[in-house]
Each structure stands twice: as C-alpha cells, then as structure tokens.
Design a protein that fits this description.
By secondary structure, the protein is mainly beta. The chain has 3 helices and 29 strands. The strands form 5 sheets. Strands 13, 16, 17, 19, 24, 25, 26, 28 and 29 form a 9-stranded antiparallel sheet that branches. Strands 14, 15, 18, 20, 21, 22, 23 and 27 form an 8-stranded mixed sheet that branches. Strand 6 and strand 7 form a beta hairpin. It is globular and about 65 Å long.
Amino acid sequence: MSLSPLRIRAAVAAAAVAGLGCATLTALPAAAAGERVTVQYRQSATGSDQAEPWFTVVNTGSGSLALNQVKIRYYFKADAGASYTFACSWAVKGCANITGTFGTLAQSTATADRYLEIGFTAGAGSLAPGADTGDMQLRFHRTDWQPLNQSDDYSFAAGQTAYGDWAKVTATVGGTQVWGTAPAGNDPDPDPTDPTDPPADGPALFDDFDYISYTDPAIGAHGWNVRSNSGGPGVPGATWAPQNVTFAREGSNSIMNLETSTAGTGESTRQTEVLTKDMKFKNGTYAARVKFSDAPKSGPDGDHLVQTFFTINDLKAPMADDYAEYDFEYLPNGGWGEPANILYTTSWETYRPDPWEAVNQHSEVRASYAGWHDLVVTIDNSNITYYIDGQEFGRHDARYLPERPMSINFNQWLIDLAGQSSTTPRAYDQKVDYVLHVKDQVLTPAQVSAKVAAYRAAGTAFEDTVPGGQ
C-alpha cells in the first residue's frame, strides 16, 4: 500500500501492545495430571472508552507450569460492527511476553458473543507450584474509540476492585480446560463448527510460487507482473527492481523472496513488488503465508520499512467512493510516527493525496511479527475480517466493502530514509510461501490450511479459475 493509516490518539502510541499467539491449527498436548491454575481478576475501569481486566494466574497444581501452554478467555458482548484493539499497560512477566487476540463465540448469549484470549510467549517462563504471574494490567478498546458499555459483559464485575478468584473467565492448559465456566454452550475447546475440510470447489487462484527466476515466462503466463516501472510508494528516486525478486526452495516448499535494499540515498534504494495484472478479485477469501523480517541480512538496522500483502484498485479521482484497498502492513522499525514495530490491517473507503484526507478503518498491534505468519482476510456482504495465525485480528464494517474488483499484491518498500542515516549498504527480505483467493466464499483459517494442503497433495502448484470482467 502507498498510504499511511489514520493515526489513533497519542495515548495509545505509548502503550506496549502485545502480539498475537502462535497458530491454533496445531493441537497442543492435553494438560498433564496435576496441572491446574486459578485465575484471579479485578477491574480497573467501569466505563468510558476502555475495558481494563487485570489478571493474576496462580499455579495450584503439583508440578511446574509452562505459561506458554496457558490461555485465558474473558467474555464480553460486542457492539454491532465494532472491532477491538488489545493493549498491555504493565505486567510483572513483561508485556512483550503476553499476547491478546479476539474471537467470536460459537453460541451467542445475552451477555457474550466475543472473547479476549490472553496467552503467553515462551519468554514468560514457568511457574513453580504455588507461584503466580503477578499483575497483568491489561485493557482493550474499540478501534474507533467509541464508548464501551461493560454492564452487559459476562466476565465483567463492577464491584471486583481487588484481586479475587473469578470463575467467569476460563483457563486452559495445553488445550484442556482447567478453570472457570464459559457462557452457555461455549466451552473453550476447538470450535466444532470450524471445519478443517476444504469447502466445495469454486473459482479460485492458488500459486505456490514455483518459478525459476523473475524472467521465468510462467510468471507472466500465470497473470503476475514483477514491477519495474517508477513511482510510489516509497523513497523519492528509488527504483523498483525486478531482479531482486527471486525464487528458491525451503524444505519441500517453493518460496518467493522480495529483497529491498538501500545505502541511505534514494538513488541507491531498490524496492520490490509483485502484483496480478488483472483487477478481477472482489468478495471472498484471501490468504498468504508470509515471513516478515525485523533486521537486515547485513549492515545497520533501523530503516522505516513496510512489508505487505494487500488487495487494491485504482483511485479514479480524489475521494472517489469506488476505491478499495485491504492491507496487511508490517513496519519492523516503526514509521508514520510509530517508534517501533507495529502490524496494521487497514480497510480503505477512499482518500485524497493532496491535501491529505483518508477514510479508512484499521486495527493494529505493536509487537514483533518476525517470522512466518498465516495471513487471511475475508470479505462478505457485511464485514471485512482479518486473521493472523488462525486468530481474529480485526473486523471492519460494511462501510468499507469493495465496489469494484482489485488486484492482489505483495511489496516491500521504504517510507523514508529517516530511520537510519548510514550510507552502509543493507538489505531486507520478505518471503512468501503461497497465495490463495477463493471467490465469493468465506473460509475459516482452518479451511484455508486444508485447501492449501489439498493443492499440494495433488501436486498442483498453480490454478486460476477466477473469471475476469467481474
């Protein structure tokens, strides 16, 4: 994408926000005998624009407890069409070791249809028997900062102003529930309504990026353009370098690599982009497995880099209402006023470049996303929903639905040269394992994984049955 998302208020920019947990599609081992926890809760805000559920987890079992096996769910009633942002204000275990993701309940009740799931990274360590995590001062808010009504939330208690055992949150260890009571019909086990079988066949694009080089004639024959023309986004004077798009094998998979490099000047900057030639993609499911990088392969770090997977069409005129764009954008070193790494998902209605005006909705998490991630966005007639590693990341409402078809794009580029002033050469990699689009079908992340596995089991490296001229 070529545009900066709308900034949210400055208070949030200072907050330490935790990242998403690991993919939930791989089953964890069941909790061993003797692994038990108690969850203590207090609330720190009864109204206004933020919910502040604070927790302490106590190991009440007989053995050491690895915290990265523990998940806590806090249940609430969401506002219609609202998306939410999680933040960690302070934690004894360190906010960088605490994750927060939002999910939708299989069975809505009068007091709950969503949940906030709290998890831990390996960096949180273990708890000895009888030990606890100490304070976890957490909070969440609507992405648009509209007021919250917590009085109808299942897990909320206005009078719980000091820590105490709280059974209206649940906890699992290794996927097995060991604490609390969920809203009726919503035990925190894998959702039986979330099938892993591939859906029925329909028009789809799948590419495993099994090519020899950027000059491979199959790339163009399969509908891709490796960009070489000038223009934005990015540093003025930069070149879009097709030779920096390479292909290799990692294990059993073929991988596309986008390398972006600079020596601190516009003339030395080489950016990369791969996009579909046709704008023929609209509603349905979009997915890709992407490896983000926090550091260059060599040379000094710090550049304001953007690593992306997105769909887009052309802006016919400033503020044209038929523009559409849906982005995953990772900034490993910050930029656009952010001081450190941040991941955005953004749904665009329109914009005007000069003077700048934008109409969009976005969700964000301030944390490192270095490594491989499964990215999924679904577009139906009422919502745009973003998932990372099987967990919902953001949900944007019908105001931002596409009115015209779009292209599918990957690019890696520099916002500016202000992040690192050195003239020492450095280069960053963004890798892509596959891309999938299924027209007019909303797939769960589990169904995406199953469909990709089915293509690979059949030996299918490329398929495009999506009709043009939508």
